[in-house]
Design brief:
NADP; five-stranded antiparallel sheet; NADH Oxidase; EC 1.-.-.-; alpha+beta; binds flavin mononucleotide; YdjA-like; Nitroreductase-like
Length: 185
Amino acid sequence: MNERIQFLQQRNSAARLTEPGPSAEELESMFSVAMRAPDHARLRPWRFLTISGARRNDLGALLREALLLREPDADIATLDKASCAPLRAPLIVAVITCFCEHPKVPPVEQRMSAACAAHGLLFAADALGYGAIWRTGKSAFDPHVQRGLGLEPGEEIAGFIYLGTRQGPPKPLPALQPADFVQSW
Ligand SMILES: Cc1cc2nc3c(=O)[nH]c(=O)nc-3n(C[C@H](O)[C@H](O)[C@H](O)COP(=O)(O)O)c2cc1C
């Protein structure tokens, strides 16, 4: 079996992540991979925010505030879980979709390009030996979180990519059969 195909077939998200995260140099190469996403009219409909170190606590505070605004009756345990969520990895990359008006490229295509960029980050993390997982949850769609992260009108969060060193063994890959999903037409 072709090694590169084998590598691609084995990408696997990792929910349990610890130090170290990718270095600045590694991260730069990961962004280069992300930006090889297919991109109709080369609009580059993405940008990335890196959140690490103590800034993860600030993100946690923002997630907690947003949760409280959404659910004023949320209990302390749920609020604490929101505050601690960003501490689940040494580094988080928020992938932002940046929409623009284009006669041939509707928003859905721009959103798909940014999603491909996020997927590129997952593959690049795997290639460098790091673990990663794409997370959203209600907070990704929450206007308070979007404002707190400095999103402009016409932007949205495609996802939070949690990155770090995988803790524990990789989870088993699902045994999906292409034949169950592919028909010839
Ligand atoms: C747009 C998007 C949002 C996701 N949000 C979450 C999330 O908030 N929490 C979570 O545990 N997994 C989330 N996932 C799923 C994980 O990233 C991952 O794909 C899943 O755990 C399956 O693992 P695998 O990628 O190794 O097959 C999301 C995936 C996508 C594409």
